[in-house]
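Now read this:
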Amino acid sequence: MKRFPLLLCALLALVGLPALAQAWPTKPVRIVLQFPPGGSTDSVARILAQPLAAALGQPVVIENRPGADGAIAGEFVARAEPDGHTFFLASNTPMMQVPLLKKNPPYDPVRSFTPVSLVGRYVYVMVSSPALPAKDVGELLAYARANPGKLGYGSYSGVTQLMHNQLKMAKADTTLVPYKGEAPTVTDILGNHVQFTFATPASTLQHVKEGKLRALAVLLPARSSLLPSVPTAAEAGLPPLNAGTWAALFGPARLPAEIAQRMNRELNAAMQRPEVREKITALGFELAGSTPDEMGLFLQEQLQAWGRAFRDAGMNPE
């Protein structure tokens, strides 16, 4: 008889697990981004939010918290209640650059978060101002070598910072100008306040078509169907990008497994919808889902790959 209360509590706990998943969510679900509105990640998030809200029965709100290479958004989610109402749609920058290049990072990408799903991979295009007297990558690098420090390079992510360092190793002396996101970087290139960067088709494709930006190369192994006349990085003579460029969904650490799995199912179902895929593919973003366990393994693999890439580019923790 003494064991009966303990057995009853255990039984009630087991019965309560499905009930938790069924009851969630009980209020709007917030997806936090490290970028300001207008860039590729913001556009992808807002497209996915609509079918997610319909499936979950609660509004899905996109919240932009830019700055500090994504550390502001990352720390906010890491400290959030793990109740399934706050998630982080993170690129590789806050999950790779922040922990690998800061001596005292505000969170651990493995211990501070619960992996939910891979969302997809970015396509990056090297774009420059048409006012720049360089019509291809070779001419741009030659100009940078002949005019050290005169070209402004907009940087807003781990990819852009890594590529800047690789260009430096190729003796192209340009001035790195930090930004909080892709959209303001592209805006300043349009105004010729800085001269070039690597950005996604979401914020550059229309400007390239209108002649307001010049596309010099794509960071892909094969040419992009969106820009078939633009050479790959290898064809253009750029140093290779030896790490993945991706976005994934995370919850805070200790997020209940049943909530992570439900969010995973609904997110992957949304990504399979033809109208969703059509809109997001047009942005130059390649959708790709995963299970939570697969995302956890992928995160570990990417930490190793980005660590090597940063070391090879001479980038050390500061």
User: Anything to note?
Assistant: The chain has two domains: 27-121+243-312, 125-236. The mean pLDDT is 91. The CA atoms of residues 244 and 302 lie 7 Å apart. The longest strand covers residues 113-122.
